[in-house]
Amino acid sequence: METGGPDAPQAAAAAERLALLDWKRRVSALYQAVRTSPEPPAAWTSWRAARDDLFRNHPQSPVPVPDRGRLAVAYYPYDPAARALAEVAAVAPVSRDVTASDGGTYQFTRFADARFTLFGHSVTLGLYWLEGYGGGLFLPFRDATNGAGTYGGGRYLLDTVKGADLGVREGRLVLDFNFAYNPSCAYDSRWSCPLAPPENRLTIAVQAGERAPGAPVEEATDV
């Protein structure tokens, strides 16, 4: 693809969109491997390694270019107790504008609740559907670690628009918080990221998944 001359801006925009397509393709393939793996801890180790590579080397990395070479993504150790199977209970659909990190909003519809037990606590989190062509399931959350170990704006667990889908087991939704990850705005404020609405704020501490940028990095080990 040529990039010089008067059409250079259009060529650059096209190249960026193709790079984003490649990012989505790679993330989708990564989660496909996670869903089909019989060993969640081993799948988590591979997921970590693949994300590290994408963050360091892919043009669509949310990490600013000058920081990519020294990037060290931090995670809590894998905890089998952080994996749950959730019953999905339909609710009356409620459309709402979800606040984003840059002060804007994104329109979602809460269409169901995920109900499960986590660390001995009964938990309910709203399931959201992105309003727009094709839609997509979105599950953000906040917990007691935010601002004290994890990104203050909360984390994501599912975002099927980007390919983050942990699948279904025994007719229930897989919610493995070891795969919780930061929104892109945790790495660069230029990104606009929808944040967890109030009903998805947990009072318990979820010490699993990705930690705040700059947190200590521990070696990934299978459980």
Would you write up a description of this structure?
A seven-stranded antiparallel β-sheet has the order 5-4-3-2-1-7-6, with no helix packed on it. It contains three helices and seven strands; from the N terminus they run αααβββββββ. The mean pLDDT is 91. It has two domains: 8-68; 80-200, no CATH class. It has 223 residues and is of the alpha+beta class. It has helices at residues 8-36, 40-57, 65-68, and strands spanning 83-99, 105-118, 121-130, 137-141, 155-159, 168-169, 172-176. Helix 1 (8-36) runs antiparallel to helix 2 (40-57).
Write a short abstract of this structure.
Helix content is 23%, strand content 26%. It has 223 residues and is of the alpha+beta class.
Protein topology:
Layout: H1 8-36, H2 40-57, H3 65-68, E1 83-99, E2 105-118, E3 121-130, E4 137-141, E5 155-159, E6 168-169, E7 172-176
Antiparallel strand pairs: 1-2, 1-7, 2-3, 3-4, 4-5, 6-7
Helix pairs in contact: 1-2
- Taken as a percent bin, the fraction of beta residues is 25-35%
Number of strands: 7
Strand order of the largest sheet: 5-4-3-2-1-7-6
Rg, nearest Å: 18 Å
Q: Would you tell me the structural class of the helices and strands?
A: alpha+beta
Poorly predicted regions are none
Q: What's the tally of helices?
A: 3
Largest sheet: 7 strands, antiparallel
Mean pLDDT: 91
Estimated helix fraction: 10-25%
Basic shape = globular
Question: Could you tell me how far the N terminus lies from the C terminus, measured between alpha carbons in angstroms?
Answer: 46 Å
Order of helices and strands: HHHEEEEEEE
Number of domains: 2
